[in-house]
Design a protein that fits this description.
By secondary structure, the protein is of the alpha/beta class. The chain has a single domain, classed as Rossmann fold (3-Layer(aba) Sandwich), CATH 3.40.50. 37% of the residues lie in helices and 20% in strands. The protein contains 4 helices and 5 strands, in the order βαβββααβα. The chain has a 5-stranded parallel beta sheet with strand order 3-2-1-4-5, sandwiched between helices. Strand 1, helix 1 and strand 2 (28-35) form a beta-alpha-beta unit. Helix 3 (79-99) packs parallel to helix 4 (120-133). The radius of gyration is 14 Å and the shape is globular.
């Protein structure tokens, strides 16, 4: 295969590991990273795309998207700010990916993710999983 992929959240722990694996994969031709900053890795396959998640624009055409965006409530400063990243930004990237031709989507979520959970963190993760299930990815 000659896949083109997008990774959102490539500056985080899991996203960076995914990015490195994708860059080593001979079946991957191009990796676009989508984020507020560059991932700090240089590679001929890598093309960083700086975005504002609140106003997601069109992404380059690609085959698949990997969502590894996330924060903590402490870092975000509030539940509203946390939700804007862990739900809103991930969903915005997924929707932009669909519009740009992505057929597959992978999500870094959490154990215990459940849209009906009384635990806020798990509820947000579960709500995102449900929202992504509604999108017509393969």
């Amino acid at each position: 295969m000659n896949r083109t992929v997008v990774v959102a959240g490539a500056t985080g722990l899991v996203g960076r590991a995914m990015l490195q694996d994708l860059l080593r994969d001979p079946a991957v031709r191009t990796v676009y990273t989508v984020g507020r900053s560059r991932p700090g890795i240089e590679d001929p396959k890598l093309i960083p795309v700086i975005v504002d998640f609140a106003t997601m624009s069109q992404l380059p055409q690609h085959d698949e998207v990997y969502l590894a965006l996330g924060t903590t409530i402490k870092t975000a400063g509030s539940q509203t700010a946390f939700r804007a990243v862990d739900f809103g930004a991930n969903l915005a990237v997924a929707q932009a990916a669909m519009a740009s031709g992505a057929r597959r989507c992978g999500l870094v979520s959490a154990m215990g993710a459940d849209a009906k959970s009384r635990v806020f963190y798990n509820r947000v993760k579960g709500e995102l999983e449900e929202a992504l299930t509604d999108l017509p990815f393969d």
